């Protein structure tokens, strides 16, 4: 199908673009610079330079395609208005068409848990508390197939949230953790996540969430030890008091990283999705994050 993709050069979007092209979809990638246009063209998409915040213009572009995936982030500015604008454009363009629209959320909205699921109540930390109202726009498009993919902590290509661990302070040869390191993180490689987006675009049920996580839920201590080895240290780590983590990283971000969250992502895997990428532990110790 003809698919409009936003955010095709970001950590999430690059995996989505790669998977869409691999599955034979014709991708138009909305970009904001000539450099990004060159990047998505090299990956097999047709670049479209434009202002994603111009809702009327975006609505017109969406009317020309068979489906859309929104994987862009603001980078700066009001994330709520940004995401609401894109979802509203999709609602206007796709209403009554039966076309699929995949919106990007995040697994943090379910808070802590030993196996968080899409059907449990939200318990979002402050940093993502705004998501539910915006995502309701995407999930309730009349006569279309709106869905939300909610990734865990996305990794790969040496970038993203795992850099927080890699770039942590070193104290007496030990890498500083976020908190005491006992908390688990839900994780997913960018390339695996892209495959899930394609599954959801093609077969996802209207109005449904799909957690994007591999089912590997390492502790931050395990990740920190891997990051320390990747930096050429001995693998030693040191715990950080919660208040110190909040001061260093900002309270809202730190509180999300301190969540003890695990998931099996059973609903997503029921679509036939089989994550196969390297683990975050391996990526930190000897992969794209290692120096």
Automatic annotation (TrEMBL):
GO molecular function: any one?
aldehyde dehydrogenase (NAD+) activity
NAD(P)-binding domain spans which residues? 7-94
What InterPro entries does the database record attribute to this sequence? NAD(P)-bd_dom, NAD(P)-bd_dom_sf, NAD(P)-dependent_oxidoreduct
Show the GO cellular component annotation of the record. cytoplasm
Q: Which PANTHER family does the UniProt record give? A: NAD(P)-BINDING DOMAIN-CONTAINING PROTEIN-RELATED, PROTEIN YEEZ
What protein name does the entry list? Answer: Nucleoside-diphosphate-sugar epimerase
Taxonomic lineage is:
Bacteria, Bacillati, Actinomycetota, Actinomycetes, Motilibacterales
